[in-house]
Specification:
The complex is a heterodimer of chains A (295) and B (250).
Chain A: H1 2-32, H2 39-57, H3 60-83, H4 91-113, E1 128-131, E2 134-139, H5 140-162, H6 164-174, H7 176-181, H8 186-212, H9 220-233, H10 238-259, H11 261-281
Antiparallel strand pairs in A: 1-2
Helix pairs in contact in A: 1-5, 1-8, 1-9, 1-10, 2-3, 2-4, 2-8, 3-8, 5-6, 5-8, 6-8, 9-10, 9-11, 10-11
Chain B: E1 13-22, E2 25-35, E3 40-44, H1 51-59, E4 66-71, E5 74-75, H2 81-87, E6 89-92, H3 104-110, H4 122-135, H5 137-141, H6 152-165, E7 170-174, H7 182-199, E8 202-206, H8 210-216, E9 219-224, E10 227-233, H9 234-238, H10 241-248
Parallel strand pairs in B: 3-8, 3-9, 6-7, 7-8
Antiparallel strand pairs in B: 1-2, 1-4, 4-5, 9-10
The chains are: A mainly alpha (295), B alpha/beta (250).
Chain lengths: 295, 250
């Protein structure tokens, strides 16, 4: 039972990171019906920016904040420069552009920073917490990871629900035609969506890198799990993205915990299994409002 | 109903030699109509005549290939729908006006997005909502419900209420009675008349129900294959037997 609790708590920490990536994908999907395959690459790049800032300022928090700001800028610039010209064209064009952007960012990271693994500091202690003499399986940093993503998610949710800007974003996502006819500048809203997605990706990057090291491809696996979480939850559903991320994080951690080294090797297979089961039972994802008609 | 901040009240709308289409298809070929401020203009014609395209070209949903869209003396042809909405043109498209995933009140608040300035004052927003609920009492009872739960008539009421919240000077209505029961259809038509006469809103009404549209309109325009084949006072059109027989089906 104690082991189960430890694996679950630890899984929640990773799950929140998958949730952040999933949420970033959902934000873009809702606005543009596009899967941003460059999301992981953008997160990796902003994490490199963070590590450079930390190196020069000796301040983790300066790096943390700059990474988030860089994520906002990178997301907005990516949308304005490479995505917008492809919108309204065949859908595959934009998908290929995001793959190209991923290759570009990973290539640039290799050129600027080299391909070697770099350690990334944690903002808090990574020593495991205990309740009495019982190890909880999580550190202060794990708690920070979960709290940071949770707070960011709640802030975004509140913003979407209670502000005019949030209403604009929801209107544009649900019905761009009506939104435009109502005076909402949908193109601008889409840019903001990409900027917020960039912020979430950057957050995931700086939060996961202390556990995974940093290298040009370091976010690829995280992206795959984030993508899986988004599909499980439903690409249309921010709530689904968070719950999908948590579910995936906990299940993968339980698999790793109980199966030992074999579990680590089987993580991707377990994720695939969950994905297949969910897609068979509910193709639109668990929390999506959309309905898929079987033909 | 107040006019949009920074704008005048009722506005005249003139469309001159408008050409618009989709790909290689020319849907409008040199259409000219004039709608006096505060009047109702019924745009009639068979399917494929170009009625919906005319509204879409006026509101910026379709970029005209030629001609002018003049609102109170200013040519706005080629502007996007966002700019047209902010200029005071509210377009209620056929059958897709409600955002089903938002609540009734959120749908109404969408109407405020064309107001000038970034953040209208809370009191101003509240007053606009109160005015909408006063006019459409049924919506007040359902303000927290998702728009997807409304009936067809209630949805039509909601899109018209939202268009009014936008404080338009010109209201483009595309088939507002489509799919509605006769009783509800009559209510919608009465509402259109009130909007025009009481609020001075210029209404351009596209309708398949030509008889109903001409009964409330000041003037009518008949389109056929993208061209104007008749334009006259509504009563004159309604009494033209040959025209009714050839183009209006009644």
């Amino acid at each position: 039972m104690v082991e189960f609790l430890q694996f679950t708590l630890s899984g929640i920490s990773f799950g929140m990171i998958y949730a952040a990536i999933a949420l970033s994908l959902v934000l873009i999907w809702r606005g543009t019906r596009l899967l941003n395959f460059a999301q992981g690459g953008m997160a990796m790049f902003t994490t490199y920016i963070a590590i450079e800032v930390i190196y020069h300022t000796h301040s983790y928090w300066a790096g943390f904040v700059i990474a988030l700001a860089a994520g906002v800028v990178l997301g907005a610039v990516a949308e304005l420069v490479v995505i917008r010209p492809a919108l309204g064209k065949p859908e595959l064009n934009a998908v290929i552009i995001t793959i190209g952007l991923l290759i570009l960012l990973e290539g640039l990271a290799g050129v600027f920073y080299g391909g070697q693994y770099r350690s990334f500091p944690a903002g808090f202690s990574i020593v495991g917490l205990k309740a009495g003499s019982t190890a909880l399986g999580v550190s202060r940093f794990d708690v920070f990871v979960a709290a940071a993503v949770l707070v960011t998610t709640l802030l975004l949710a509140a913003g979407f629900k209670y502000t005019s800007a949030g209403l604009r974003m929801r209107a544009a996502a649900f019905n761009a035609t009506v939104a435009r006819l109502s005076g909402i500048r949908v193109a601008r809203v889409i840019t903001v969506g990409w900027a917020l997605a960039g912020l979430l990706g950057a957050l995931a990057g700086v939060l996961v890198s202390p556990a995974t090291f940093l290298y040009p491809n370091s976010m690829d696996t995280i992206f795959v799990y984030g993508f899986t979480a988004a599909v499980i939850g439903g690409l249309d559903s921010p709530v689904g993205a968070v719950i999908g991320g948590l579910l995936l994080g906990v299940v993968l951690n339980l698999a790793t915990g109980y199966l030992g080294s074999q579990g680590s090797d089987l993580q991707a297979l377990v994720a695939l299994g969950i994905l297949v089961v969910v897609l068979m039972l509910r193709p639109e994802g668990i929390f999506s409002g959309a309905r898929v008609r079987r033909v | 109903m107040s006019s949009p901040a920074g704008q005048g009240g009722a506005a005249s709308l003139t469309v001159e030699n408008l050409v618009a289409g989709y790909g290689e298809v020319i849907a409008l070929n040199g259409v000219t109509i004039t709608a006096a401020a505060g009047s109702i203009t019924a745009v009639l014609g068979a399917n494929g005549a170009g009625k919906t395209t005319l509204l879409r070209a006026i509101s910026g949903m379709v970029r005209p290939r030629g001609g002018r869209v003049v609102l109170d003396g200013t040519d706005r042809a080629g502007r996007g729908p966002e700019d047209m909405a902010r200029a005071g043109i509210a377009h209620v498209p056929e059958g897709q006006g409600v955002i089903a995933e938002l609540t009734v009140e959120e749908n109404l608040r969408i109407g405020m997005m064309s107001w000038p300035g970034i953040a209208p004052r809370r009191a101003e927003r509240a007053a606009a909502l109160a005015q909408a609920y006063e006019r459409f009492g049924l919506l007040a009872d359902r303000r927290r419900k998702l728009a997807s739960t409304l009936s067809g008539g209630e949805r039509q009421m909601l899109v018209i209420a939202r268009a009014l919240v936008a404080r338009p000077r010109v209201l483009l209505l595309d088939e507002p009675s489509l799919g509605l029961a006769p009783k509800i259809m009559t209510q919608v038509m009465d509402m259109v008349v009130r909007l025009s006469k009481e609020n001075g809103i210029t209404v351009v009404l596209v309708e398949q129900n030509a008889r109903g549209a001409l009964s409330i309109a000041d003037q009518g325009v008949v389109l056929n294959l993208g061209r104007v084949v008749a334009a006259a006072e509504a009563k004159a059109l309604a009494s033209d037997v040959a025209l009714r027989h050839h183009y209006l089906g009644f």
